[in-house]
Amino acid sequence: xxxxxxxxxxxxxxxxxxxxxxxxxxxxxxxxxxxxxxxxxxxxxxxxxxxxxxxxxxxxxxxxxxxxxxxxxxxxxxxxxxxxxxxxxxxxxxxxxxxxxxxxxxxxxxxxxxxxxxxxxxxxxxxxxxxxxxxxxxxxxxxxxxxxxxxxxxxxxxxxxxxxxxxxxxxxxxxxxxxxxxxxxxxxxxxxxxxxxxxxxxxxxxxxxxxxxxxxxxxxxxxxxxxxxxxxxxxxxxxxxxxxxxxxxxxxxxxxxxxxxxxxxxxxxxxxxxxxxxxxxxxxxxxxxxxxxxxxxxxxxxxxxxxxxxxxxxxxxxxxxxxxxxxxxxxxxxxx
Length: 336
Fold this sequence. Notes:
Layout: E1 14-17, E2 35-40, H1 50-63, E3 67-72, H2 78-90, E4 95-98, H3 104-111, E5 118-122, E6 135-140, H4 142-155, E7 161-166, H5 171-186, E8 192-197, H6 204-216, E9 221-224, H7 230-239, E10 243-245, H8 255-258, E11 263-265, H9 268-280, E12 287-290, E13 297-299, H10 313-326
Parallel strand pairs: 2-3, 2-4, 4-5, 5-6, 6-12, 7-8, 7-9, 9-10
Antiparallel strand pairs: 1-3, 11-13
Helix pairs in contact: 1-9, 2-3, 4-5, 4-10, 6-7
């Protein structure tokens, strides 16, 4: 999931978060730790969304003195990622994390050849059945994410049509959209929902075009389920004086202008669990699901865009989050 590039920031194929000599294309970020960790991301880690969430989490662990880490970006192609993963395993890294569904198969394939190395893969719920003794898995609650965004959308004022923009029409993305629909309904809204998919996790231009199309259909509010396409959604909404939900990061400086709120990832609880389990000897064959209950999903502060936010919205949202986190409110299986 790739953002519109930031021309003020240099991009690197690998980022070293450790002490020692530097290779070409590498820069130091933090100082030493204990476990040697490699993090591979499918796109750039300054995207303000999916990939940055992973980088932020490992940086926090480095700052706590628990790990050293090397980050490799733009690893979506298995032809590139598999030999890179194998290289890290051969060098004796303690933990190799593949952050993104594009990296799950290469991680699983290499892990079989290095039984003493720990690996972490990302994917959908089906990944749970593929884990082995040296592989942990991770996903997030797509339906829960969509549901909370949908609840916020359904509580906003003067919204008669809501646009929905997704990336690839994959089962877990559709689950998020199903959750969004349910959240809108449960909030008491009768707004019309218009939906489209761009087919890409990271094509901001396609997302902008899709958003413009939904705005032409009457959508004054557009939600996006795809982190990497949020910049395009935000840009199109800003040009039409519209509002958004689900845009992550600052979206090129537009988020404060257009985005009401977003349910965002926090990878720290999961990555900290990996480190703790390695230390205790309990790592392997565990499947982690980021959700509201374990604070792997968090709602950003509500932003009153265009006067759409009712005075009691934050109170209603906080109550809903507490009910979901405690288990008092059970959500259906949005994959069905």
